[in-house]
Specification:
The protein has 12 helices and 4 strands, in the order H-E-E-H-E-H-H-E-H-H-H-H-H-H-H-H. It is α+β, with helices and mostly antiparallel strands. Helix 2 (55-58) links the parallel strand 2 (43-49) and strand 3 (68-74).
């Protein structure tokens, strides 16, 4: 391989493609999202090996420069990646697949949550959303305005996780939220209206705006079978729902 100090994306790609020990190359990040790369964007690449790597290949794991960011891994380890990496892989581009489509299939599966996984996740995130929403509205009522805005921001994070879990998709990173929704809208959600509402809530923490949004979320959640999660909140739901004076 080319010495680390002289690695460019093009040079690395050519050398890695020529090395038969490399069975897969997967590009993630800004360069995998059409229109998102800038002059400051590096190339984030998974280098997937078919077996144990020699010292030269293994030494590239964790390599970072202004142009290139490498992770060297095995097929099995790549298959089990999840958590924070889930969305990055869901929209990644497969540059090399020497395993008759196996690498491509792994990447495709990262973009689709299992039915049980999605339902459980949605329930947990719905509860987290209700929790932060409730705290935000209480804090606003009691004059704790900074706390109200912080809780409102927490509620939006949980809400987005919930909405994407309903569609069995990993939530995109904040940087790619608009990109994702413009190209792959959520069912029954008007993208522009959703982004406008959450943007205004993030800016102001306005309880009226939060309650207006909740009435729509509650309807969606119950339709999807998550009524019990909301009903567990009992009379506290009344604080989350619109009141006289709120504009729906």
């Amino acid at each position: 391989m080319t010495p680390k100090s002289r690695l460019t994306y093009e040079t690395f790609l050519a050398r890695a493609t020529a090395d038969t020990r490399v069975v897969g190359l997967v590009l993630k990040g800004s360069h995998a999202h059409v229109g998102m790369a800038t002059e400051h964007s590096d190339h984030d690449v998974y280098v997937i090996l078919g077996g144990s790597a020699d010292a030269d290949l293994a030494s590239l794991d964790g390599y970072r420069s202004a142009e290139l960011d490498l992770v060297v891994t095995t097929v099995d380890a790549f298959r089990h990646l999840g958590g924070y990496e889930r969305y990055a892989l869901a929209r990644a581009r497969v540059l090399l697949d020497r395993l008759d489509g196996e690498i491509t299939d792994i990447v495709a599966r990262k973009g689709r949550l299992g039915a049980d996984e999605a339902f459980r996740g949605a329930a947990d995130w719905l509860d987290a959303y209700a929790n932060s929403l409730y705290r935000s509205i209480k804090n606003a009522r009691d004059g704790h305005l900074l706390a109200a805005r912080l809780d409102a921001a927490d509620s939006i994070r949980a809400l987005l996780e919930f909405l994407f879990a309903l569609d069995r998709r990993p939530r995109p990173y904040n940087k790619y939220l608009e990109w994702e929704l413009e190209r792959f809208p959520l069912p029954k959600c008007e993208t522009g209206a959703l982004l406008d509402r959450i943007g205004r809530i993030m800016e102001t923490g306005d309880p009226s705006l939060q309650r207006q949004l909740f009435v729509r979320v509650e309807s969606t959640a119950r339709e999807a079978g998550h009524g019990p999660t909301l009903d567990a909140w009992g009379e506290d739901l009344l604080l989350m729902r619109p009141v006289v004076g709120d504009q729906l």
